[in-house]
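User: I'm curious whether this sequence folds into something compact or stays loose and floppy. Could you predict its structure so I can see for myself?
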Amino acid sequence: MTACAGITEHRLERWNVATRTYEPVTSIAAAPNRIYHSAVPLPLGETSYFRITGILADGTPAAVVHYSAAKGDYV
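Assistant: Here's the prediction. I'll summarize afterward.
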């Protein structure tokens, strides 16, 4: 896929309601055919919004971004 060409890093970011911006959580070097895992604490009973952004070699974000949401389990 052309939009993914040149991605050297994947960055996981979480939405911050107070600042109304996505903030970096972690990043990892890109590798073909790799499955990525990241353990991120979730506030109980709240929905957290995330995005995964491809980062190019020059540090700029790629055009491809994937969004997701997760809800913390009730204990």
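Summary: The chain has a mean pLDDT of 83. The two ends are 42 Å apart (CA to CA).
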